[in-house]
Amino acid sequence: MTVKYVATSKLPTPWGVFDMVGFEEETTGKEHVALVFGEVSGETPVLARVHSECLTGDALFSLRCDCGFQLQEALKNIAEAGSGVLLYLRQEGRGIGLLNKIKAYHLQDGGADTVEANEALGFAADMRDYSMCQPMLSHLGIEAVRLMTNNPRKVKALSEFNVNVAERVPLQVGKNRHNEHYLATKMGKLGHMMTEHHFREDD
Fold this sequence. Notes:
Blueprint: E1 3-13, E2 16-25, E3 31-37, E4 46-52, H1 55-59, H2 67-81, E5 84-89, H3 98-109, H4 114-120, H5 133-139, E6 145-148, H6 152-160, E7 165-169, E8 173-175, H7 180-190, E9 200-201
Parallel strand pairs: 4-5, 4-6, 6-7, 8-9
Antiparallel strand pairs: 1-2, 2-3, 3-5
């Protein structure tokens, strides 16, 4: 994957001022951003989150998933740590796109879980691509990360694309009555590492 650096600007947030670094995939034109806080370059593993776009959870306050809660918690954790990076990847709906995600939600309304809905639409359970991550991190001078995720498959996928994941840091937030089945599917079918007593619940 070849990504091209485009521009950097300041991004004030409720947790602090981040640098927003824009990248573009040269083959597809897809746009991604890195939100950088503090000094991140060097050998010391940096607190990091690789977050795939979720319009419904990140921007529209959906309680069907834990994505928006994880996004906010990750930014807060990075700011509190004094340094870190969040890669925001434009691959909606685990890579199937927004409109297909709405179709999948419709199937879930009828009783399907997230994996069953994706497969009924002809997609794999997870279509995400992480090949752009290492070039983005390399541009920022980041040599290793402490990755905030509950998903061991993400750790494996990033490692396969030459990202040095020094540690997995749990990120358990956002459980509510609307996403209990969704979270159970993540654990049961996708292998996410979550424990009930570590969850910070949100009503």
